[in-house]
């Protein structure tokens, strides 16, 4: 499974299978953002959609979109993203 099609803005993704065999994908740093699927790919696709919706909500409310710890470190070192 390639993660090349997924852009989660530097956030670490945890992927688990539950007792019923469903897959759960969620942001390690933002555990309230999660999605389920029948396969790892489906869970990641759903998480991708969910993440885009969350970012849209932040933008509509004129709030800053969360930045991953990895990106925060890069920005603090003067990198431009």
Low-confidence stretches: none
Query: How many domains make up the coordinates?
Result: 1
| Beta-strand fraction estimate | 15-25%
Strand order of the largest sheet: 1-2-3
Based on secondary structure, the structural category is: alpha+beta
Q: What shape does the CA trace take? A: globular
Q: Taking all residues together, what is the mean pLDDT?
A: 87
Total helical elements: 2
Count every beta strand, where a strand is a DSSP E run of 2 or more residues.
3
Distance between the termini: 27 Å
Biggest sheet overview: 3 strands, antiparallel
Radius of gyration: 14 Å
User: What is the chain-wise order of helices and strands?
Assistant: EEEHH
The helix content is 25-40%
Question: Briefly, what is this?
Answer:
The chain is of the alpha+beta class. The protein contains two helices and three strands; from the N terminus they run βββαα.
What brief labels describe this structure?
81 residues, alpha+beta, three-stranded antiparallel beta sheet, 36% helix, globular
Walk me through the structure.
- By secondary structure, the protein is of the alpha+beta class.
- The protein has one domain.
- 36% of the residues lie in helices and 17% in strands.
- The chain has two helices and three strands; from the N terminus they run E-E-E-H-H.
């Amino acid at each position: 499974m390639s993660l090349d099609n997924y852009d989660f803005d530097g956030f670490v993704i945890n992927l688990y299978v539950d007792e019923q065999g469903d897959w759960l994908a969620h942001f390690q740093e933002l555990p309230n953002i999660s999605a389920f699927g029948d396969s790892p790919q489906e869970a990641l696709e759903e998480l991708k959609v969910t993440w885009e919706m969350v970012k849209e909500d932040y933008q509509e409310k004129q709030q800053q979109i969360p930045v991953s710890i990895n990106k925060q470190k890069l920005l603090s070192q003067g990198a431009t993203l």
